[in-house]
Design goal:
Layout (H helix, E strand, L loop, with lengths): L4 H4 L20 E9 L6 E4 L13 E11 L6 E6 L13 E9 L4 E8 L4 E2 L13 E8 L7 E10 L4 E10 L8 E6 L4 E11 L1
Antiparallel strand pairs: 1-12, 2-11, 3-8, 3-12, 4-7, 4-11, 5-6, 5-10, 8-9, 9-10
Amino acid sequence: MALTKVQAEGINLADTFAFSGTVTGAGTRKLLRTITISSATSSVDFVHGANDVVLDTTYPRYEILINSFVPETNGQHIRVFVSSNSGSSFYGDSAYNNLTHRAYTNGSTTATDTTYFNDFASYNYLGLTNTANKGGGHATIEVSGIGNAARTVINGQFWGFGETYYHTTRSSGAYESDSTTINAIRIAPTSGNILSGVFKIYGVL
């Protein structure tokens, strides 16, 4: 019986092959930085050019994952801000357009609502408990339009346990200038400090 080309070249198709390269193409995610907070910290900042973070046109989209955000003070919310001067200052009041939809329940009362805000780009819109073993707040935040003079749009999905409520929030916002280059992102509680949490930023092709 004649050998096939694969058999002739000595490749055993029963082997388990390990791939060690980098897969490229649409949807590829590269971890740029991980920040772990374990003591009171006012904010988490991701800044272009600092600690191996790039926030430019290298990636068309950036994704931030938050795990177990616990505020030092009970009842705080997660807020997202942007900067165009490498984090020397962040845009604040009346600088954004944001629409936030939340759904929540305490086991006996369930409600939903949609609210407009203009003081931050993304928002979890329910106060988090500062009791760490209740799980804290979690989020996936997608940012598009970073690194060039274009409108920066942010989409956030948040979930977690408040002081007395379970909740989910969908928050879509923007810093709407089409002539400003955004190069830094800040995550902070409404007031006070972050007590603990893990924050990761990815570049997404």
